[in-house]
Amino acid sequence: MFEVNAYLMYAKCGVCQVAAVGEPQCAGLEAGQAYYTLRPVYGNETIFLPVDAKVALRPILARTQAEALLGEIPALLEQYAAERPKMEQRALAGYYRDLLKSGEVLDALRLLGYIYGKRQGKPAYKLCQTDRLYAARAEELLCGELAVALGVPREEIAQKLSPVLA
What we know:
By secondary structure, this protein is α+β, with helices and mostly antiparallel strands. It is built from five helices and five strands. The protein has helices at 63-82, 89-101, 105-119, 129-150, 154-165; strands at residues 7-10, 14-22, 35-40, 47-50, 57-59. A five-stranded antiparallel beta sheet has the order 4-3-2-1-5. The protein is globular, with a radius of gyration of 17 Å.
């Protein structure tokens, strides 16, 4: 069980803060069921998630982990670019979706590495719509988590990563 005020990575919407744990007074929710009341850091909705839900929900990286990861990102992208799977374009969306569904920071980096690998050495290479959409989502999740863990604006992380992801 997560504590109130804890920051969590929820794969569906990114970094959230636990506003409450317990039975919310909200119509349409199962009575007697404990819920997390989540507030996305980069959004204005409220999410009610059953405490026992089988979803990707984990604490965000600690500050030291985020600092270390930030320094490792170029090498990880190179590594993942080299490991890029060979698959038909039609299969990519499902593969990318599964990577992001895990909610793990390394899976988001793996996805970016695969896409980064497609463009390596090809400055004029245009990404397909699937690659653009999933790369944008992976960058959003990655930058959001690193920003909250490091206590800086998300734009600052995006700016630091933009030369690496270009």
